[in-house]
Amino acid sequence: MIVTVAGFKGGVGKTTTAVHLACFFAGLDGKTLLVDGDPNRSSMGWAERGNLPFAVCDFAASVKASRAADHIVVDTEAHPDNETLETLADGCDLLILPTTADALGLEALLNTTEALKRLSAYSVLLTKVDSRKMATAEQARVMLESQDIPVFDQVIRQLTAYEKAALAGVPVQGSGDRMASIAWKEYRAVGEEVLKYDQGV
Ligand SMILES: Nc1ncnc2c1ncn2[C@@H]1O[C@H](COP(=O)(O)OP(=O)(O)OP(=O)(O)O)[C@@H](O)[C@H]1O
Ligand SMILES: [Mg+2]
Hints:
Blueprint: E1 2-5, H1 14-26, E2 32-37, H2 42-49, E3 55-58, H3 59-65, E4 71-76, H4 82-90, E5 94-100, H5 103-110, H6 113-117, E6 122-127, H7 134-146, H8 160-168, H9 180-198
Parallel strand pairs: 1-4, 1-5, 2-3, 2-4, 5-6
The structure holds adenosine-5'-triphosphate and magnesium ion.
Residues 7, 10-16, 38, 42, 78, 127-128, 156, 158-159, 162-163, 166 line the site of adenosine-5'-triphosphate.
GO molecular function: GTP binding
InterPro entries: CobQ/CobB/MinD/ParA_Nub-bd_dom, DNA_Partitioning_ATPase, P-loop_NTPase, SRP54_GTPase_dom
Protein name: ParA family protein
């Protein structure tokens, strides 16, 4: 399966999502490859700082590397134009659009509703949700779904564990944070939803 992570805003958790979905796939049968399509090389940096349980390469190396991969996750840079977004969606099985649940994040998404309607397969992932403001995330979900925008059931909470993991160059379950296993459970649940999507459930 090829999953691409993209988004209209910077810093919404695209790289964090790409790394942890790749981690989820790495726990299944077959080989997993994370392709870093961001010139800032954030995923590459994550891997270089520590150790990730799957291969990471940049776009230039991805054509050859993908030959041996069963599961491919692509991390991309922020602010794609509508045409790029369509090309990204056409080039994968599922396009994941992480967004924060605040007004600015949602506005960036809703501004592109027309472009989203042209996409083949995509779903929005609410990320960096403040645990004290879960109601805001649910409100955001209702609003997006009322516009026929698909949203993952699972939301990703704002947890320090993710920041620690990025700094140490490891997946969140190896971050040593007290919330590490809870954090990992969230992305695992997203991974399960992605698989269901692939099976057309
Ligand atoms: N769920 C989360 N909880 C807390 N911090 C998070 C979470 N997700 C991401 N972060 C932190 O937010 C920052 C941005 O995350 P990330 O790099 O994944 O976003 P991005 O969308 O890929 O950014 P860019 O647009 O720069 O590529 C990082 O410091 C990361 O550790
Ligand atoms: Mg990034």
